[in-house]
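thread: overnight batch results

M.L. [08:02]
morning all. the overnight job finished for the chain we discussed friday. pasting input first so we're all looking at the same thing
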Amino acid sequence: MRPTLHHPALPIGRGHPLAVIAGLNVLEDLDLALTIGRELKAVCADLGLAYVFKASFDKANRSSITSYRGPGLEDGLAMLAQVKAELDVPICTDLHTVAQAEPVAAVADIVQLPAFLCRQTDLVVAAARATQAAGGVLHVKKAQFLAPLDVHNIITKAREVAPDLSIVMCERGTSFGYNNLVVDMLGIHQMQGLGVPVTIDATHAVQLPGADPRTQGASTGGRREGVPVIARAAVAAGADGVFLEFHTDPDAALCDAPSCLPISGARALLTQLSELHAVVNR
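M.L. [08:03]
and the structure it wrote out:
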């Protein structure tokens, strides 16, 4: 039986409609964040879907030292808090260091562990403790180098220090040769078998790490047209939620432009995914 999570910020899994964690890759300015969040909230409300606004305050893992990283912890959390207050939506953002755990959990309803850091024990422990204390949800990206069942160790680490913690795993693709990722749809069911709901990060699953021809490999490339394909396939395979990134002008996005979607297409895509989820879980 598929797991379920009856959390007020993120009702997800068996018995719930498709959950949507979506927004910007990284915060650029408040107006853009509000524009994206307002449109996604409206679409999800019309479709009866739980919505969480997502944006990073810092992109610590960049190909180049000159890449845009975001406004940083203090300014970024202040911006996210304003989005949360003005739009009345839950917030999801990621953290990168132990010291960030408590301040991030104080603002974010969904605290996210980045894929490359999901096996860092000190970070897992700090994030788990802070998230449970704040009453939030820990959203863990499965690393590109891990098999689906390997995430059992991450869940165990977190629950050893925070036994009542709400955890959701996220599939985001697995390294396949050089500069490429693939998604094993069978892994979604395997991770659900560990007792946690599972989302699909269709945006990052289409990345081509270190292979952006515009910068001669100084940034990550992507296949924007593949995002709906991965999202549909994952929902058909039983994913409980989707993680997507949008922009008003994707080609001008300051981070991971080749992978993000135009906000103008959000309604059509989410409508299709919601209907597909309903059919699969009927």
